[in-house]
Amino acid sequence: MSGVPARDRVLWREAASFSARKHAGQLRRDGRTPYFAHVVRVSMTVSELFGCHDEETLAAALLHDLIEDTTTDYDDIEERFGRTVAKMVAALTKNMALPEAGRERAYDRQIARADWRVRLIKLADAYDNLADSPTDPRRLEHLPKRIDACRRAIALAKKDAASRRETRRAIAVVEALVRDSQQKN
Questions:
Q1: Which among 140, 149, 158, 160 has a CA at the least distance from the CA of 122?
Q2: 78-115: per-residue pLDDT in tens?
Q3: Does 69 qualify as catalytic in the annotation?
Q4: The domain spanning residue 138 has which CATH number?
Q5: Would residue 24 count as lying in a domain?
Q6: How does residue 135 score in pLDDT terms, banded at 50, 70 and 90?
Q7: Hey, which residues does 34 pair with through a beta bridge?
Q8: Cβ distance 88 to 56 under 8 Å?
Q9: How far apart are CA 46 and CA 122, in angstroms?
Q10: Cβ(88)–Cβ(114) below 8 Å
Q11: Is residue 36 part of a domain?
């Protein structure tokens, strides 16, 4: 962020550019949609549907898959976006070195211990993956897993609902999408 006056810096804008470069060439499961569209939708969901406009949260949403899906590491993110954003992104990163059987449980524990904003981003991520299901050629095969991911994200976020308006709103939005997805199938 050197060379840019502090008053002109917009963290989410810098995160969007960085994420777009790092995700360049990656596609969603449909084989056509640039992967970057997913992280933008996650960030927009956090902002527009859930009502959270915190810059660090929006930046972390835009960067949430970098450690897991690119060559970017924690230090890269911390250097460019600060420790708070880097910690949020790290909390949203699955440990792929763990056996698959225990990976999701470890991931859920990691998210449960993290900043409340991590759980909000996870709700947006699960929401987008379920909302994007119609573009997935293997939609019916992946649908139960995506619904389960939404339910797990809701369960993790419930502890924040009493004190966070954004979380209450997010849970309601994700629950409505789950109901709608189940009714259509």
A1: 149
A2: 999 999 999 999 999 999 999 988 999 999 999 999 99
A3: yes
A4: 1.10.3210.10
A5: yes
A6: confident
A7: 27
A8: yes
A9: 10
A10: yes
A11: yes
> Rounded to the nearest 5 degrees, what angle is found at the Cα of 28, between the Cα atoms of 119 and 82?
40
Token code pair at residue 4: 């840019």
Residue 87 lies inside a defined structural domain of this protein: yes
Give the span between the Cα atoms of 22 and 63, in whole angstroms. 9
Tally of structural domains, the chain: 1
State the Cα–Cα distance between residues 37 and 154, nearest whole angstrom: 23
H or E stretch at 63: helix 55-63
147 contact partners, CB below 8 Å, separation of at least 6: 130, 178, 181, 182
Which one from 14, 54, 55, 69 is the annotated catalytic residue? 69
Residue with tokens 């909302």: 131
Q: With contact defined as beta carbons under 8 Å apart, do 46 and 61 qualify?
A: yes
Alpha carbons 67 and 20: distance in angstroms, whole number: 14
Active-site entry in 30, 48, 68, 148 = 68
Beta-carbon contacts of 10 under 8 Å, excluding residues fewer than 6 positions away, are 55
pTM recorded for the entire structure: 0.92
Model confidence band, residue 158 (pLDDT cutoffs 50, 70, 90): very high
Give me the domain span that covers residue 173.
8-183
172 belongs to a structural domain:
yes
What share of the chain in percent tops pLDDT 90? 82
